[in-house]
Amino acid sequence: MSSLVSIMIPVYNAESTIAMAIKSLQYQTYSNWECIIVNDGSTDKTLDILNKLAIKEPRLKIFSFNNNKGRGTARQFALEKCQGNLIAMLDADDWYYHDKLEKQVNFLNQHPEVVLVSCGMVIQRNKECVGVRGIQNEKIDHFNQPMPVPVPHASSMFRREIVNGHTYDLEFKLGQDMDFLRRILIGHQYAKLDYAGYVYDEYISNTPSKIFSSYRFSAKGYLKFFKTYPIVSIRYAILEYLKIIRLKIYTRLFGFNSIIEKRSIAITEIQKNEFLKNLEMLKNHE
């Protein structure tokens, strides 16, 4: 029997994108999934759209907060509602390629020693593919100490068993996703697929102030390991603050968009065609 995959979607005021995100689940080649959607106090038509979609799609499990509580709280609430052996993430303004879930489930089935597998992220801008990030050669690595998390949170899938009581930090306004991964990954093996299957519009979701704040929260996250890894935790906390200084200088000299472009590699013609194929499949899916 195939494993149930629980996909977590925290959503706030995403009336223009949430339907596409959910549609990208419905066209998956892997069908044994449930989607835990937490409406985090949206003030637009997001909840109305979700309720209409849920009438025809029983795999959608919708929960709603009366007021906005923040992404950390929404993620944690969703995590507690997950029933699957495998857990994946999808943000409300992103979408999956049609075989994203299948490829990750197959890899985890073939490699029982691996607890988390990620895939590459396609960076889009105005519905056009402009770069890719996070593609690797499927080498299995060991995460043996607190360090920069080598995989994206959004495009990862992990085994439920490694949560082991860990929670998203509700005090972290930003960066709670990577802080969570850092803590659940310690002592485990992970891998990155040679495949880009998650589409993300970084130009919409990122601003300099958000990145600066995420670095500050990241530094705070490293200090959680001070008792067990004192030297390592202090070293990486300091490096996070140095990133803020470098980023401020680089932003003034070259502009913010150049920073985003630098974080990704150029798209190949094959990857561009794959993006267009999946976009067309998504648009045509009923």
UniProtKB/TrEMBL annotation:
Domain of life per record: Bacteria
Pfam families to which the protein is assigned, alphabetical: Glycos_transf_2 (PF00535)
UniProt-listed InterPro entries: Glyco_trans_2-like, Glycosyltransf_2, Nucleotide-diphossugar_trans
SUPFAM superfamilies hit by this protein: Nucleotide-diphospho-sugar transferases
Keywords attached to this entry: Glycosyltransferase, Transferase
Residue span(s) of domain Glycosyltransferase 2-like: 6-162
Protein family (similarity comment): Belongs to the glycosyltransferase 2 family.
Protein name: Glycosyltransferase family 2 protein
